[in-house]
Amino acid sequence: MGAEGVGAAMPRQVTLDDLAMMAAADENHHYELSPEAGLSVTPLADPDHALLVSRMFAWFLTNGYGPEQVVTDCGIDVGGGRVPDLTVWAAGTPPRAARSSYAGTSGLLLAVEVVSGGSEVVDRIIKKTEYAKAGIPRYWFVDRDGATTVHRHTLDPRTGEYEIDPGGAQPFGWLLATTPDVS
Fold first, then answer.
1. From CA 141, how far away is CA 157, in angstroms rounded?
2. Widest pairwise Cα distance in the chain
3. Over the stretch 87-118, which tens digit does the pLDDT of each residue have?
4. Which CATH architecture fits 45-176?
5. Distance from C-alpha of 48 to C-alpha of 71, rounded to nearest angstrom
6. Choice between 37 and 176, residue whose per-residue pLDDT is larger
7. What is the rounded distance in angstroms from the CA atom of residue 80 to the CA atom of residue 148?
8. Residue 35 Rama label (left phi>0; alpha psi -120 to 50; beta)
């Protein structure tokens, strides 16, 4: 189908349910919706991106977080539909559907994004703002620079904005040598 056919078939305003249907019907792309109803369609993660997420997933599991707590590619409802690369949930509060098939943020402790080419502004600024407004206590993004740098942020309840964690950005290898604490 060409662009004309896709455009003609698009709903006037995309809802989270529409977004979920589009994502389910297309295994070759990643779909997200901003709170302002801006639709983003991107290619799936490349192997390096996937390996970084897998290593973090294994790190959490190895350090005592259960498989119902550490979830990859889980859609969350932040006023729009976002799909962080990795989420960590409080024990006993796995992701649950909210007003659509996307999970609400109740029990969500951490959202992690691995920055890909073309997603720098969205991951470093836009999602950081959206996740803060949704009250997610921690947000990390992983820069795929020479050191693969992890930028860790914690929500300041007084300001409703993320503050950089003490120690600032750290290399990915440093992170994996520590014990995670996102409670």
1. 20
2. 51
3. 999 999 999 988 778 899 999 999 999 998 77
4. Alpha-Beta Complex (3.90)
5. 18
6. 176
7. 28
8. alpha
Cα distances (angstroms) measured from residue 73 to each of 32, 54, 163, 174 = 11, 11, 25, 24
pTM, 2 dp? 0.86
Say which amino acid occupies 171: P
Q: Provide DSSP, 39-101.
A: EEEEEPPPHHHHHHHHHHHHHHHHTT--TTTEEES--EESSSEE--SEEEE-TT----B-SSS
Spatial CB neighbours of 2, under 8 Å, sequence gap ≥ 6: none
d(CA 3, CA 123): 27
Tokens of 118: 């073309």
**Coil, strand, or helix at residue 154?**
strand
Q: Distance between CA 6 and CA 81 in Å, rounded?
A: 20
Domain boundaries, the chain: 45-176
The residue type at 21: M
Put the strands of the sheet holding 81-82 in their side by side order: 39-43, 29-33, 81-82, 76-77
Question: Which of 128, 132, 126, 85 lies closest to 105 in space, CA to CA?
Answer: 132
Q: Token digits for 151? A: 């930028």
